[in-house]
Amino acid sequence: MKVLVATEKPFAAAAVEGIKKEIEGAGNELVLLEKYTEKAQLLDAVKDVDAMIIRSDKADAEVLDTAKNLKIIVRAGAGYDNIDLAAATAHNVVAENTPGQNSNAVAELVFGLLVFAVRNFYNGKAGCELKGKKLGILAFGNVGRNVARIAKGFGMNVSAYDAFCPADVIEAAGVHAVKSQDELFQTCDIVSLHIPATPETIKSIDYKTVNQLPKGGILINTARKEVINEPELLKLLAEREDLKFITDIKPDADADFAKFEGRYFSTPKKMGAQTAEANINAGIAAAKQINAFFADGCTKFQVNK
Ligand code: 3PG
């Protein structure tokens, strides 16, 4: 079987080596399309492949229509909003993700960004410490749980809200479970977003929600840009000079946000999962899932059931 790794943002070399070893070790063939810049390159590469591994690369209807032999597509990572699941299902293509494999990397970046933010982007002026601050985690999945673990090391008071995770599971992790998203914003100094982009969450982080943060509040996003209502957040930042917005996903209105100097920071490219460890974990998991699918039809991580 021919397996394509198509990554506009490439994996670490060690991850590619590991994927190659797995795929070829199972008697399959590996082809690589890294750092591509045009969709046409992706369309050309998918024409004759049986399986593919992607990251945030867009597998839309056109890609799935073109990939006539495709049987399985694995998103090496957690969020699969970049795959057109309806098109995959219509073409009888199994879509999978690799949950948990890159979550520690994203969680560590939250703290890299937070220290940078509370120390005023290292501008020389006195900032503040994370110890004793109230951190609110929105969604208690794999990333949220790692964020909670690390936050405790910083001596933060940690709360979480997750519409799909029972309060007793959150409490069992030693985290205070609040009753609503609004309560999280009202009671925490910093809110860290870990929600996926779904019809329910898209643009849900809006003026009213963020305006509930107390004075000096920080909103940090290492999830998806789509969950932010950008025009409303821009309006709020203009009205409240005490708020900061830190993000690992450049907003569409980056130039407008950049006007809030000293209160806004975006990484130039989404860096959350960009570590050798996360690339190796997610990439090799994806390769193993593809091998298992071809060997015995295993679809354990299918997301378009
Ligand atoms: C994920 O959903 O796994 C993360 O957002 C990482 O995405 P990336 O592989 O594009 O860096």
Summarize the structure.
Keywords: NAD, Oxidoreductase. This protein has 305 residues and is an alpha/beta fold. It has 2 domains: 2-101 and 274-296, 3-Layer(aba) Sandwich (Rossmann fold), CATH 3.40.50.720; 103-266, Rossmann fold (3-Layer(aba) Sandwich).
How would you describe this structure to a colleague?
This protein is an alpha/beta fold and 305 residues long. The protein has twelve helices and twelve strands. The chain has helices at 13-25, 39-46, 61-66, 85-90, 103-118, 142-153, 167-172, 181-187, 207-210, 230-239, 254-257, 276-296, and strands at 2-7, 29-34, 51-54, 72-75, 94-97, 134-138, 157-161, 176-177, 190-193, 218-221, 244-247, 264-266. The strands form two sheets. The protein has a seven-stranded parallel beta sheet, sandwiched between helices. Strands 2-1-3-4-5 form a five-stranded parallel beta sheet, with helices on both faces. Bound molecules: 3-phosphoglyceric acid (3PG). Residues 9, 55-56, 77-79, 102, 270, 272-274 line the site of 3-phosphoglyceric acid.
Show the helix and strand layout.
Layout: E1 2-7, H1 13-25, E2 29-34, H2 39-46, E3 51-54, H3 61-66, E4 72-75, H4 85-90, E5 94-97, H5 103-118, E6 134-138, H6 142-153, E7 157-161, H7 167-172, E8 176-177, H8 181-187, E9 190-193, H9 207-210, E10 218-221, H10 230-239, E11 244-247, H11 254-257, E12 264-266, H12 276-296
Parallel strand pairs: 1-2, 1-3, 3-4, 4-5, 6-7, 6-9, 7-8, 9-10, 10-11, 11-12
The structure holds 3-phosphoglyceric acid.
Residues 9, 55-56, 77-79, 102, 270, 272-274 line the site of 3-phosphoglyceric acid.
